Structures are given as structure tokens and as C-alpha cells.
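Field reference: "sequence" (input) and "structure" (output). Example, Cyclin-like protein:
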Amino acid sequence: MAHMTNPLATPDQIFHRNSLDSLPVELRDAIFLSTQCLTQAAGILLQFPQSVTAQANVLLARFWLIEPMMSHEFSDVSAATLYLTAKISPCPCTPRDLSNVYAYLLSPSSTFLSSPSNHPPKNIPRDYYQSETAYHAFHSRVLSLEHLILCSLSFDTTVSLPHPLAITYLQSMDFLHFPKEKITRRAVEYLNSALLSPQMLYLTTQPNGLAVAAIYNAAKDVGAKMPECEWWEVFDVDREDLGFLVVGMRSLEGWVESMRGDGVLGRRKGGGMITRKEVRAILGSDRPKEKEEDPELAMARRMDEKMKEIEGSAA
């Protein structure tokens, strides 16, 4: 059963995560959401199976439990994690393909995280053209981060996803006597969305719990009739854990909308991936400005200091 479980984050890691970089909670969540979405977008453009991209999302979340977010550029961490995950999968990608995809997603021509109300940007190939110098610099950063990620995770890159378990559980319940394509798709959608959760559900819950919660939510959404007994206990999930996961998954859509509406991502002037430079600017603007000293008071203070200095030297 070892291949069906994951190493979970300890309470100390979750508690001390906030003290790694001293970022405000809302800003940290915005960085996490943006980077995970960037990883998903890159996986789609690289035509990776969702299993590979989802594993990269989990490894990225594990890495940020140990390393401060502001230590490296967020897009570089995303690229390095995806590159590492693909390398040990049946579908590796070349560094050039990875570089081209991230150059496009980070360019003004990309629609990544752009506001739905804005007009789509014009596709200008010059925006995401990469010179040899830029490519080699990107490749060097990715390789350096790949080594750091492996060392931080003690070379444990094993990730067990709940998606196969969810399908197996549905099969055992005859898909709740509902069209299997519809209820299965909805359950998988919940599992994919949970990768973006700031509660880090994949780091605090084993795959069987995530699978059961996704099935429960999917059945509620499509109107499938669930067994009247406490069927989740058959899959080794407690009622309290199930309730927490159900609420966490169902609240994610509203949270993302609020982040892109009145939250950090919505208050940004433009779309695209958030950067460390932008975060530093936000932190700088949030700091209270020092009150300017009155010129006359400043002059009097300097004169007093000068007089004390003269008196001290005379004595």
C-alpha cells in the first residue's frame, strides 16, 4: 500500500511556513495560485498528461514548505519542478521546448491570468522570441533549481495521485447509478482544482481522503444518489476529515474569483504572471511612510546637536 500514500506535511512545517519569508497571507496565497496555474498552463502547452503536471504541482508545494517563496523567481521554480517531474516520467521534454513555452506564457502576447473583461492581446512573436543568451541563462537557472529541489525534498519525488482511486471507488459503487462519464469528469475536476488550494490539501491529506471528498462533491453537483450508510468509512475516511475536505474543495472556486476580483491579482494593473519585483513593490507601498520632519524643527535639532558637540569638546 506504500504506493498509494504520500509523505504528509507536519504541523510544524505548516505553522512555520508563514515565518519563512514574512509575506502577508493574501500575497502568499496569490503567489501560490499564480505559480500553480502557470505550471498547469505550461503542462497543457507541452502536451503532458495531467498526471505529470499534477505531480509537479505537488512537488512545488512541498518545496515551498521548506524554501522561502522569495528565494527564487516564481516562474523559474515552476519550470524547474515541471522539468524535473517530466524527466522521471514516460514523457520528458527538451530544455528548448520548456524555455519556449515559458517565454510565451510570460510574454505580453500571452493571455495567462489576463482579465476576462480585457481584449485578448495581439500575438506578436517578437515578444516571446528568445536569444541564445536568454535560453542558456534560463536553462542554467532551471538546472540549478532542479538540484536545489531534489536536495530540499531529500530526493523523494514520489507522488501518489487520488485520481485513479476516485475512479476505482466509483466503479466499486457502480458510479452511483449515474452516467459514468459525467460523474467521473466532475470528480476529476474537483481533484484538479484542489491542486490550487492555499490550504495545501495534497500535503495534508492522503489520496484516499481526497478521492472520497471529490466523489461526494461530484455526486452533490450532478444529483447522484449516494448510499444512505456512512460509505466513506469503507474507504478509511472519517466523517470529520471528509467534512473539512468537502468544504475546502467547494470553497475554492469562490476564493479564486475573489482573488481575481478584489484580491491581489484583481488589483494589478495588467495580467500575466506575478514576479518578485512586483511583490517587492507591493510590500514597499504597503509600508507606512515616515512622517517628514518640520524644517524649522530639524534645524533646531541640528543646532542643539552641534552645541552639545562643542560643549563636549570644550570640556
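Residues 163-253 form a domain with the Cyclin A; domain 1 fold (CATH 1.10.472).
The longest helix spans residues 25-45.
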